[in-house]
Amino acid sequence: MAGKRVLILGGTTEALESAERLSAAGQITVITSMAGVTRNPRLPAGENRTGGFGGVSGLTAYLDAEDIDAVLDATHPFAAQISRHAGDAGSRAGVPVLHLTRPPWRRRPGDQWYEVDSAVAAAAWLNTATLGDGSTVFLTIGRAEISAFAEIDRLRYVSRSIEPLDFAGAPPFVEAILARGPFSIDDERQLMIDRNIVCLVAKNSGGAASYPKIEAARALELPVLMLTPPATPGGESTSSVDVAVAWVHGTLGISR
């Protein structure tokens, strides 16, 4: 296949920006791969593929078959497995890999954070917390892990996600909100007031798009159960889209 080819492992705003900037140069074939868990996602510039690769061996085979020259891992901070697979597959295939990581949020004055390492740990915390029966908790961790809260039926929940909730595995008292960010701090604050939210459960995914809910919780003096992100993957990494774009150009030997 002629020309230089870069695979972006996407699903984030950083992946969208990287794909747009690299495609605009016109000298690189940009292929963005998305997991496919979100219907009707924003499509990046360039070529797109959806679905998994079949583990490290499958991704290695893909890099070979598609003559990929570089991989930019710009996946979600909590998508630790695909980041590990990217590093391992790149080593096997002899393809350089850069992880574009998003720094987590840092605690600020007024934040009432209780850090936990999983949704199961968050549910255990809620089960022993001094929250009144019937109190409402705001879940903003997506739909995949909501079953962790199913057994705590003394509380009510508001769950916000992009995709519809599977009520079969959900807590018995849950209001599902389908919405795609970004959201403003005023909107987040009003939602928390209207639903009488007493606690927020969130993933520390960093970035600006979903930070207003943290600001709103701080303003309302609400506790936040913060799921800590997985460890940063090994290998070369950056938190800057500028650096990532420059790395791709440099790796492929393309002048900007």
Tell me about this structure.
The structure is a single chain. The protein has 2 domains: 4-103 and 231-252, NAD(P)-binding Rossmann-like Domain (Rossmann fold); 112-227, 3-Layer(aba) Sandwich (Rossmann fold), CATH 3.40.50. The chain is 30% helix and 23% strand. The protein has helices at residues 13-24, 55-65, 80-93, 119-128, 185-194, 212-219, 241-252; strands spanning 4-9, 28-34, 47-50, 70-73, 97-100, 112-116, 136-140, 156-161, 174-178, 197-203, 223-227, 237-238. Helix 1 (13-24) links the parallel strand 1 and strand 2 (28-34). It is elongated, with a radius of gyration of 20 Å. The relative contact order is 0.17.
Compact description:
The protein has helices at 13-24, 55-65, 80-93, 119-128, 185-194, 212-219, 241-252; strands at residues 4-9, 28-34, 47-50, 70-73, 97-100, 112-116, 136-140, 156-161, 174-178, 197-203, 223-227, 237-238. By secondary structure, the protein is an alpha/beta fold.
List the helices and strands and how they pair.
Layout: E1 4-9, H1 13-24, E2 28-34, E3 47-50, H2 55-65, E4 70-73, H3 80-93, E5 97-100, E6 112-116, H4 119-128, E7 136-140, E8 156-161, E9 174-178, H5 185-194, E10 197-203, H6 212-219, E11 223-227, E12 237-238, H7 241-252
Parallel strand pairs: 1-2, 1-4, 2-3, 4-5, 5-12, 6-11, 7-8, 7-10, 8-9, 10-11
